[in-house]
Design brief:
Blueprint lengths: L1 E5 L4 H13 L4 E5 L2 E4 L5 H12 L4 E3 L2 H19 L8 H9 L3 H12 L3 H19 L4 H7 L5 H12 L3 H11 L7
Antiparallel strand pairs: 1-3, 1-4, 2-3
């Protein structure tokens, strides 16, 4: 039995889910972002207990099939943008269709209808959040970030960044560096 979980977007979320499953004595086969495969079917009472415990952490069970598909789309996109180290450009149309066994047009229409934005805009927003994260870490320069996230050029990344945030990447970097103080100056 598969359970789908809303707002499960990071490794900590997986740890929370694992902990809550163990507390309730629920055994699972596989746990990934946005879903968990349970070994046995659960009673409504146990499902309700799990949902209540997850809500304390900002997570919740998704029982509606359409909402499950939307969350799966989001999980796949987040996984590929934030946690994948693939060298090749990611073809989300193909990945989403193959992973979910639906035609991309259906997925795109469903996502737009339910989420209020296109899959493409969601991908762009996730990529810009990843760019922000990489800028703040200050381990890669903008060219390396553009290459890592499969932008055609630094100019393309910069234009998209400015369109989404209203800031240039270099101005964003200056803003974040001003907020941090060297511990020796405290």
């Amino acid at each position: 039995m598969k359970l789908f979980i809303r707002n499960m977007v990071c490794q900590r979320c997986k740890m929370v889910l694992k902990s809550e499953l163990e507390k309730l004595g629920i055994h699972y086969l596989h746990l990934s972002l946005g879903e968990v495969e349970i070994t046995d079917s659960l009673s409504d009472l146990l499902l309700n207990k799990l949902d209540i415990s997850l809500k304390h952490y900002g997570l919740e069970l998704i029982l509606d099939r359409r909402a499950q598909i939307i969350e799966k789309i989001k999980s796949i996109i987040i996984e590929k943008i934030h946690y994948s180290e693939e060298d090749e450009k990611i073809n989300f149309t193909k990945i989403l269709s193959q992973s979910l066994n639906y035609d991309y047009k259906y997925l795109s229409n469903l996502f737009s209808e339910v989420h209020g934005t296109t899959i493409e805009h969601y991908i762009i927003n996730q990529k810009i959040e990843r760019v922000k994260e990489l800028i703040i870490y200050n381990e890669l320069n903008l060219s390396e970030i553009a290459w890592k996230l499969h932008y055609s050029s630094v100019q393309h990344l910069s234009a998209q960044f400015k369109k989404v945030t209203g800031l240039t990447p270099s101005f964003f970097k200056k803003m974040t560096s001003r907020r941090r103080k060297d511990i020796s100056n405290l």
